[in-house]
Amino acid sequence: MRRIPTEAIVWTAGLAGLAILGPSLDGHFTICVPSLLGLDGCWGCGLGRAIGYLFRGDFQASWNAHPLAIPAVVVLLYRITTLLLRSRTFAGAPHG
Predict the structure, then answer these.
(1) Treating both helix axes as pointing N-terminal to C-terminal, what angle do 6-20 and 43-55 enclose, rounded to 10 degrees?
(2) Does residue 44 contact residue 63 with C-beta atoms inside 8 Å?
(3) Residues 6+ apart with CB under 8 A from 43
(4) How many CB atoms within 10 Å of residue 25?
(5) Alpha helices in 22-68 (DSSP H)
(6) Interior CA angle at 72 toward 68 and 76, to 5°?
């Protein structure tokens, strides 16, 4: 039986969550300490919003929120693909 790597599941769920949820933080729960302290400009929040805008096709808003959204998505998709292919390639091979 093939096992999907947990890391691939986590990255896929994270990207899916950013794609499904709205990029606006207004009225949403957050665990971001700078946002909870009332500070604006958190790079992590900006990246999350930028990826959300990217999945909606709003490239200008994505760029304005964080210019590294496209490279981040490309890197994460590459990592997910690599993990899935590696698990498929070595599924039947003995480990050790």
Answers:
(1) 70
(2) no
(3) 66
(4) 16
(5) 33-36, 43-55, 59-65
(6) 180
- Which two structure tokens, joined as six digits, stand for 5? 């790597």
Q: Are 67 and 86 in contact (CB under 8 A)?
A: no
Fill in the amino acid letter for 3: R
Both tokens of 75, joined, read 């890197």
**Rounded distance between C-alpha atoms, residue 5 and residue 13, angstroms:** 13
Q: Write the DSSP symbol of residue 95.
A: P
Compute the half-sphere exposure of residue 14: CA atoms within 13 Å on the CB side of its CA.
15
Residue type, 1: M
pTM: 0.76
pLDDT tens digit string along 44-96?
Answer: 778 888 999 999 999 999 999 899 999 999 999 999 999 999 887 665 555 55
pLDDT, residue 41, reads: 67
Region label for 75, one of left (φ > 0), alpha (ψ between -120 and 50) or beta (otherwise): alpha
Of 12, 10, 21, the closest CA to residue 45 belongs to 21
